[in-house]
Amino acid sequence: GLPHCPSLLIDPSITASTCLQNLRKEKSRNAARSRRGKENFEFFELAKMLPLPGAITSQLDKASVIRLTISYLHMRTFASQGDPPWSPLMEGQNHCSKVRRSTHSLATDMFELHLGAHLLQSLDGFVFVVSSEGRFLYISETVSIYLGLSQVELTGSSVFDYIHPADHVEMAEHLGIKPHLRAEAGCHVVPESASSTASTSSLAGTPENTQQHITTDNNTQQHTTKHRNSQKHTTLNNNTQKHTTKI
């Protein structure tokens, strides 16, 4: 027999096939509603595992939960490797390490010796850790004071999203991001030929534009002079008419 269909009781003209279609649609909607409920629950549980206050995690959307979770996992992997060397020359263990270490400047040695004090001083600003791809793994909460952007908003995003494109290459060099990873990190690289061509064309057009501007100014001055002469001529005519009237 056919499954119970309330629509048949309301409107007997409804066919059995239409009733079955309605039942399938209702079943599909219930299944989709159930999937969404399970998905929302998993995102809610995942957000609770983040090292953030509950007042913040309860307001996160799904994309933010995924972004922060990935950043947190990267940060855990980074922290599990121990304290990294602060100078690229200290990386690797080979027979040249002592020689390379001896060539360090006194400023670098003093910086590493008083590293803790330097970090405490920098807390008057903000501290951040970036991955090899240029993404924020961690950034201190004080960033909101100086940039007006929250810690949650910046974590997991690319540092190049907040830097002028003209400074991308320089910033990538300071961060030690390898050239083949810069495009993936969002670093905007401007070809030197294009920039030189643009500067050359702008310089080439400057004298001509200046001459045109000077010519325009001269024409304006001439027009103004003619206008003043016309006004003077009109004034003379008026005075002549007044003199004629008196006579």
What is the CATH architecture term of the domain at 54-82 and 104-185? Answer: 2-Layer Sandwich
CATH topology of the domain at 54-82 and 104-185: Beta-Lactamase
> What percent of the residues sit in helical stretches (DSSP H or I)?
55-70%
How many individual β-strands?
2
Q: Mean pLDDT, nearest integer?
A: 71
The profile of the biggest β sheet is:
2 strands, antiparallel
Distance between the termini: 124 Å
The CATH class of the domain at 54-82 and 104-185 is Alpha Beta
- The class by helix and strand makeup works out as mainly alpha
- Computed CA radius of gyration, to the nearest angstrom: 37 Å
Low-confidence stretches: 95-99, 192-217, 232-237, 239-247
Order of SSEs: HHHHHHHEEHHHHH
Subcellular location: Nucleus
Domain BHLH: 23-76
GO cellular component, one term: nucleus
Keywords: Nucleus, Repeat, Transcription, Transcription regulation
